Structure formats: C-alpha cells, structure tokens
Amino acid sequence: MQRRLNGRDVLYFGGLALVLITIVLVMYMIDRQWQKMSRMEQLMREQAGDIREITGQVRSLDQRIQQGVNLAQQSGSSQQGQMPTAFERAYAVTQQPDYSQGDWLVQAFGVNLKSLTPFISQDVYSSQVQSYILETLLIRNPDTLEWQGLLAHDWSVSEDGLTFIFKLREGLQFSDGLPLTAEDVVFTFEFIMTEAIQAPRERAYYAKIESVEALDPLTVKFQFAEPYFNALSLAGGMEIMPKHFYRPYLEDPNSFNQSKGLLLGSGPYRLEDPKGWAPDKGGVELRRNPRYWGPVEPAFDRLIWRVIENDSARLTTFRNGEIDTYGSRPREYQQLIDDEQIGDKAQHWEYMSPVAGYSYIGWNQLRNDEPTRFENTEVRQAMTYLIDRQRIVDEIYLGYAEVAVSPFSASSKQHDPATTARNYDQAMGIELLSKAGYADRDGDGILEDSDGKSFEFELVYFQGNEDTGRMVLFLKDMLARAGILLQPKPTEWSVMLDLMKKRDFDAITLGWSSGLETDLYQMFHSSQIAGGGNNFINYSNPELDRLIEEARATVDEKKRMPLWRQAEAHLFNDQPYTFLRRSKSLVFIDRRLRNVVNTKVGLNLGQVPLENYVPIVEQRYTQ
C-alpha cells in the first residue's frame, strides 16, 4: 500500500529544500566576497608599493633640494616644464567645454583572438589591443608625421647613422607600479633576439641592431651593425616590455610560447589580470591604468572589444547601441547613410588611408616539401589574368576600392607609375597555362596537366566575412570558365593561423596592413620562409632578396626609391600574390564620441595618446 504525502511531509521536504537553497546562496555569497577580498588585497599590495615609491621619491627630492639641483631642468615630462609634444593634441581636447572623463569605448572584433601575448599573437587585432598597453620610445604626429618623444624625451643620431641614443623621461612606470628604465629597453631587445622565444618576424627586423646598451638608468644606446633606412622607426618603435614581468620566461621559453594572455606594459590601459586573459573570455576588456605616468589621462574608464564574427550580427549590435563603431560593407553603406535611425545616432566616414593595406591571394609554392602547381611563374601570372579584379571592385565592393598593383600604394614613392595592373584577359591566361603544360585532354571542360591530373585547388578564406565569401564564389565561377576548379574552404581564424604556420594550404586570401614606407623583407625575402616567418607561400627570388637587402641598407631616399621600384618589378612579374584591392574605410561612429577627426594616417579614434571622449550628459556606462 503506497503512503501518501501528508502536510508534515510537505513541510519537511520544503524545509529541506529551503536549507539547501540557503546553503547554495551562502556559498555563492562567500565566493563573491572571497573574490572581492582577493581584488582588494591585490589593490592594497599595489597601493602599498605606490606609497613606498612616493616615499622614496620624496626622500630623493629632499636630497636634491639640499644639493641645490635645478629641478626644472630635470622634469620627466618636458625638460622645460612644458607639455610634451606627444601629448599636446590630447591635452588640447581636455580643454573643451564639454570634456569629461568616464564611459566605455565598446567595439567589436570580427575574429576570436588566439593570443594577446606579444610576438605570439600574429594579427592586427591583437596588435590594436597591445597598443594601449605597450609603449614605444617615439611616436609619429598623425598630422605632420614627424617623430615625437613618448617614453623618450630626446634622442640623437651619429653622423654615420649607426648609433642612436635615447634619453628616457623620469618617472616612467609600468602599470604594476615598478619603474621603467633603460634596463627594460635592453631586456626587450635581448628577449626578442633569444632564439627559443617564438618571435621570428621580430628577430628578422631587429637583426639589423648589433647591440642595445644602458648607459645609465635613463639613457639607452642602439648600435646598428649596418645602415638601415628605417633605423629610427625600428629603434624608436620598439614596444618596451617590463624585465621583472617577462624575465622568468627566458628560463622556460615554452611556457611563453604557449601562453595566451601575458601582457603588461606602461600604457594608459591594462588588463585586470596581466596573466589571466584567455580566448574563451569572448573578447577583451582593458581598464584605465591608475598609475599611468603620462601628463594626460585617457578619458574612457574601459576599452572593450566583443567578438562578433558575423557581419550582419555586428550591424544589429551597432543599431542596438551595444557597440560604438561599425565598419560598413560597401553594399550596405549608402543604405545606412539614408537610414534615419543610423543617421540620428552615428556619424559616417569614407576615406582611403595613405597606409591602407591590401588584400591578396597567396599562391603556395611548396606544400609537404613538394613543389605545387603554383611554383610555376607562368601559372601564377595566368591566375592573375584570369581574375577580373576591376569587376570585383565594381560589383562586390561597389567602387569603394581600387585594384592593387603591388604591395605599394599607387600614391607611394615606392611605386613605379609605369607599372599598371594586369587587365582581365582570359585568352592570355589560357595561353600561359598552355605553355605551362595544361590543356583539356579529355574534353570535359577541365584543364589537366601532362599526367592527366585536373587543375583543382582549395582556396582558404576567413569564414566570418560575407564579402570575402561572395568574392570567392565569384572567383569560382570566373575560373571555371577557364577550366579550373576552385574549391572554397571557409575557415575559422585560429585554424587559418595554424595553416599558415604549417604552410599547409594550396592558396589563401588575406590582407596586409601597410606603412608610410613598406618594407618587403618580412613577406617576400626567402629567409622568412623558415622558422615561422611571414613568407608562408614559400616564395624565393635571389635577385629580389638582393634588392630588398640593398634598399633596406640605403638611407638616402633618392637612391632607395629606385631600388624599391626594381623590387616591385620582380613582384609584378613573379606574381607570388595576385594583388586584389585596396579598400576605402566606410565607418559609422556613435555621435556621443567627440573629437573624431581624420588625420594623415586615418581616423584618430583610439589613437594613443587618446583624443576622444564622451560628454557627461551623454555617457552610457557608469561605474
């Protein structure tokens, strides 16, 4: 006979459930309190360190006064008591009537970052995050493009152009409160040049430097082994790493090489946990560095990047006010301009940056230690003739782009105006393939090589970009008319990075960012094939190697530019890439963000030192 629950049973089980719920809630509250106490303990340790440092500075100040030192001449910020030129633009913004600190700048990445650790990360997105945390000795004025001192307040160059001496500012410190000195600059160079550290791309550049030496705590000397046209940029642009934080990884390089989020610096922002970021966090959050040494604090309390891989989802998120910026696709740009909702909340920008990068298809010439069909120069030339790049620009990017000729912008001094893009020419493409041994041998409409193997290849591309996906389908149809089978291979970003590292692909479409003067060494010099360098298409041309080396060693611009143009001619002939396009930036930015202006290097949004802010009455996020 079954026993039915009575009122006493209900009360008993109800009470037991209440006790269990109470226990869970208490455990949750204890856990929350423990986390808060841990953060408070960390903050108190940092504040205690700050107090010790301030005490030491006061004692030092007393000694200087007693010795009659002229403190004005030893000011860490200006040597003359003036605002450092690197901060003048940011300081001018703070004088605006509606200027206010606070709020968050929230943006979105179209890919999930694989790592934030310096050198281990390989993409422009992680570099963007690092730029707020790691600082350099010098920066460029975004309007004049002249060099200005950031961590350094002064520098000198020897007559032979081989020796550079930088004077650091006093009072520099990392976000954990420890001082930044010349020893940290020396350590950064030594860390990069350590073979066990996974930094082949950086070592390729810094190999030009013979030594870096600390002459005293605030003076550092860079000695170059040979002349280099970009020497000041190379030395002054080195992102300085704290010796005390990264030195332990020299004893265990593998832990550094496998790390995801080891990031600490002296910049205006910092990770809450400089060792704890991981890709599964779904984005990046930086907080204002409370110990920032600079004379102008950034306005935003936090910088946040969310990972939204789908283009349409990013637009929806922007419409909803959940992110502050949106990079528009060409086919929706005019519609968004005419959209009243978007117009009310956002301003739009359309521009071709002088440092705009280029997109390309890279033809891998060696896979699994075996030459590929793309090792043949005539095949690569044919592929470029068979791709109607102007039609891609017109129909997919609606004219908001231009056909790319080479790694050099058409407006660059490095570019030879006589070198123009190959026009689409199917007959020429098929003729070149015929010379390379390809023909439709069985009448099925598909080209075969002399062994009867069909001309078929996979094209790897990032799966989250809708325009790239459309372009790949466009290419598939276009090449099919010439008897070539293109198999699209949409791929996650982290997988693409692995494929490039292993050189395990047929062809890949990507993009490179550019600079005011582009150094070809990293992408096209044959020395960068091995060791994980960026010549991941296994391209080698000894004469091009020689020209790149000679151009890099030529300081005189008038003599250097003809060398770059000769190098461009080799790339134009060899077509290791089919250079696709340079695109305009089509950007929408929330109107509450003030002082967004276009400079010679593009929009100043997020430019360091930060020049943007949100008036207090329009701030969306509060602490």
TrEMBL record:
Q: Which GO terms describe its biological process?
A: peptide transport
What keywords tag this UniProt record? Answer: Membrane, Signal, Transmembrane, Transmembrane helix, Transport
Q: Which Gene3D superfamilies match?
A: Dipeptide-binding Protein, Domain 3 (3.10.105.10), Periplasmic binding protein-like II (3.40.190.10)
Q: Where are the transmembrane segments?
A: 12-30
Specify the superkingdom. Bacteria
Question: Recorded GO terms, molecular function?
Answer: peptide transmembrane transporter activity
Residue stretches making up the Solute-binding protein family domain: 147-522
Question: InterPro entries this protein is in?
Answer: Peptide/Ni-bd, SBP_5, SBP_5_dom
Q: By its UniProt entry, which SUPFAM superfamilies does this protein fall under?
A: Periplasmic binding protein-like II (SSF53850)
Q: Name one GO cellular component term.
A: outer membrane-bounded periplasmic space
Similarity comment: Belongs to the bacterial solute-binding protein 5 family.
What is the name of this protein?
Answer: Oligopeptide-binding protein AppA
Q: Gene name, please? A: appA
